[in-house]
Automatic annotation (TrEMBL), chains A, B:
Molecular function per GO: DNA-binding transcription factor activity; transcription cis-regulatory region binding
Matching Gene3D superfamilies: Tetracycline Repressor, domain 2
Residue ranges of every copy of the HTH tetR-type domain listed in the record: 2-62
DNA-binding region residue numbers: 25-44
This protein's UniProt keywords: DNA-binding, Repressor, Transcription, Transcription regulation
PANTHER family listed in its UniProt record: HTH-TYPE TRANSCRIPTIONAL REGULATOR BETI, HTH-TYPE TRANSCRIPTIONAL REGULATOR RUTR
Cell cycle as UniProt keyword: no
The UniProt record lists the keyword tRNA processing: no
Protein name: TetR/AcrR family transcriptional regulator
Organism: Actinomadura harenae
Length: 194, 194
DNA sequence: CTCGGCTGACCAAACTTTCAGTCAATATCG
DNA sequence: CGATATTGACTGAAAGTTTGGTCAGCCGAG
C-alpha cells in the first residue's frame, strides 16, 4: 500500500469519526486528505471500495496500537485487562478508531461486502483475548471452570456495547470503565475482587 | 399523534431496518407508507424531524411490545431473563425494532438532537431491569452483594453489543442467546447455574 | 519522451424540499 | 336551512441541492 493511500485512509478514519459513515462525502474526504476527489477514485475505485479498505485499515491499525500500548512481559491476566480497558480511553486516536469501527460494523448490517472483514476482525480480537485468558488460567490467575471462549466473547461484546454508549453520550467514561472492570472480575474470578 | 403519523412512523422503522438511516430516502418512505412525500414534510417538517420522531416512536413501541410479551405474575428473576433474551429473538418485529434502534443510537453519536431521547430511553430500560433485579433480590432469587444498577447496566450493554453482532452477521443467534444466558447467571448468581 | 500519479472541470443521477392547488369536512352567517 | 368562508389533510410536479463518478489532459521523475 502506497504512502498516498495510507494518507487517504487515515483521513477517511478521521472523517468517519467526525461525521459517521453516513456522513462521509467523497469531497469532504478529499479536502481532509488534501487531494482531489478524482485521486480517491483512482486509488479505491469507488465509495464502497474505499469503505472496504478503510475497514481493513482500521482493524489493522487497532491491532498495532493495541500491541504498542502494552509493555512486553506483562502477565496475561493484566494483559487482558489492559487490552479491554484500552478501548475505553479518551484519547483522539482511540476515540477516532472506536467511532470508526462502530460505524463500519453498523454499516455491515446493510452492506454484505463489509460483513466478512468485520467478522474476521472480530474473530481475531476475540481469539486474542481468549488466548490470553487461556494462558492466565494456566498461570492460576483465572478461576477454573471459566470458558475462555465464552468469557472473551462476552467481554468484547460488552466493550462494544459500553463503547457505543460512551461515544453516543449515553454513559460517562469513568462509569463505563468501572462497569467493565467489574465485569472482568466477575468473568475471571467468579466473584468481584476487593 | 394522529393515526396517519403513526402510519408514517411505522413505515419509517421498516425502511430504516431495511436500508439503514443513511439509506432512508423520503421518496422510499412515502412509497412504503403509501402517501406522498409532501405529506411527510407536512407532518414532520423535514428529514431530521422525521428521524427524531421515529426514535421516540421506536423506544415507545419497544417498551410496549416488551410488556405484552410477558405474562403477568411472572417472578422477577424470570422476568429479567425474559426481558433481556427478548431482544435476541428472530421475529420480524424484534429484528426491525432492534435494527432501527441500533441505527438511531449510532446516529446519536453524530447528531446532538438525537442524544437526549437515546439517553432517556436507555435510562428507562436500565431502570426497569435494575428495579426487577432489586425485587428479585428481595425474594432471594439473586445473590446478595449484587449491585442491581451495575448488573443492569452491564447486562443491557451486553445485549446491545451481542445484538449488533448478531444483526451484522458476526454472531449466530443461538450463540448470542447462550452467551447472554451465561452472563445473566454470572451476574445474578455469582456462579454459573447448573 | 513517456508513463504513472494526479487534478480541475464537469455531469447525470439521486435526493430533499418547496409550492400551488385540490378536496372533504366543518364552522359561520343571513 | 342553504350558501359561503375557512381549515386541515393531502398531492403532483418541479425546483433546488448534493453527491458519486468520469474524463481529458497536465506534470514531474526516470
Amino acid at each position: 500500500m502506497s504512502e498516498r493511500q495510507r494518507l487517504i485512509l487515515s483521513a477517511a478514519v478521521r472523517v468517519i469519526a467526525r461525521d459517521g459513515v453516513r456522513g462521509l462525502r467523497m469531497e469532504d474526504l478529499a479536502a481532509e486528505a488534501g487531494v482531489s476527489t478524482a485521486l480517491i477514485y483512482y486509488h479505491f475505485k469507488n465509495r464502497a471500495g474505499l469503505l472496504h479498505r478503510t475497514l481493513e485499515y482500521v482493524s489493522e491499525r487497532a491491532g498495532r496500537y493495541t500491541d504498542e500500548a502494552i509493555a512486553p512481559g506483562t502477565d496475561p491476566r493484566t494483559h487482558v485487562e489492559l487490552l479491554l480497558l484500552h478501548e475505553l480511553q479518551d484519547t483522539p486516536a482511540i476515540r477516532e478508531n472506536s467511532t470508526a469501527w462502530g460505524e463500519l460494523r453498523a454499516s455491515a448490517t446493510f452492506d454484505p461486502v463489509l460483513r466478512e472483514p468485520v467478522r474476521t476482525a472480530t474473530a481475531e480480537w476475540v481469539g486474542d483475548i481468549s488466548g490470553l485468558i487461556d494462558q492466565a488460567m494456566i498461570e492460576g490467575q483465572v478461576a477454573p471452570h471459566v470458558s475462555p471462549e465464552g468469557a472473551a466473547e462476552r467481554l468484547t461484546s460488552l466493550v462494544e456495547g459500553l463503547s457505543e454508549r460512551w461515544l453516543s453520550g449515553t454513559l460517562m467514561l469513568d462509569r463505563a470503565q468501572s462497569l467493565l472492570r467489574d465485569a472482568i472480575a466477575l468473568e475471571l474470578d467468579r466473584a468481584p475482587r476487593r
